[in-house]
């Protein structure tokens, strides 16, 4: 590994050369702080008949505009009323569906009102839809929708969103007439 001193001096990312403390000093190990972010610069195969690849990385810092844009986008997408809901959205975003499902089921057990339950069912439906488990997605969307129908006025925009989501699942299943029925509601 080569480290460009100009990048390190401008970065606030702590690191330590730990070869003196390593069991294998010839490895010249470098320890970076948690949450260090590197950008892939280049990937090259070491030789044409080799399965080894060399990956050239460069460290980023908080002034990196692409990293800042990505961070802002992720923050915006995982906004929620509290940390657990944001965690669930983030898990969905990165495809950790099993953990997201476990978290949402725990949140469901402690849900304090119908609106909260409707939201959790909606998030479970999104998860199942992304997994391609359409019948399960429909079940959760319908549970969410029934709660919303009871707790909201009939012209509330959340009901339209709910109908659209159910229609989207039917469309994904190839049941276009059923999808159209929900889109028209």
UniProtKB/TrEMBL annotation:
Keywords: Repeat, TPR repeat
TPR repeat feature ranges: 81-114
Alphabetized InterPro entries for the sequence: TPR-like_helical_dom_sf (IPR011990), TPR_rpt (IPR019734)
Protein's organism: Rotaria magnacalcarata
SMART domains assigned: TPR (SM00028)
Name this polypeptide is given: Uncharacterized protein
């Amino acid at each position: 590994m080569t480290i460009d001193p100009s990048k390190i001096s401008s970065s606030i990312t702590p690191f330590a050369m730990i070869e003196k403390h390593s069991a294998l000093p010839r490895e010249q190990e470098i320890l970076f702080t948690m949450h260090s972010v590197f950008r892939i610069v280049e990937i090259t195969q070491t030789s044409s008949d080799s399965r080894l690849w060399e990956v050239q990385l460069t460290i980023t810092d908080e002034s990196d505009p692409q990293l800042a844009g990505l961070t802002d986008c992720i923050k915006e997408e995982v906004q929620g009323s509290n940390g657990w809901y944001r965690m669930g959205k983030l898990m969905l975003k990165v495809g950790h569906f099993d953990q997201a499902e476990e978290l949402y089921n725990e949140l469901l057990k402690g849900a304090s009102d119908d609106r909260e339950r409707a939201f959790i069912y909606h998030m479970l439906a999104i998860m199942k839809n992304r997994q391609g488990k359409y019948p399960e997605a429909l079940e959760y969307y319908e549970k969410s929708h029934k709660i919303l129908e009871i707790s909201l006025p009939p012209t509330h925009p959340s009901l339209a969103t709910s109908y659209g989501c159910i229609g989207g699942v039917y469309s994904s299943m190839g049941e276009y007439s059923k999808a159209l029925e929900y889109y028209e509601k």
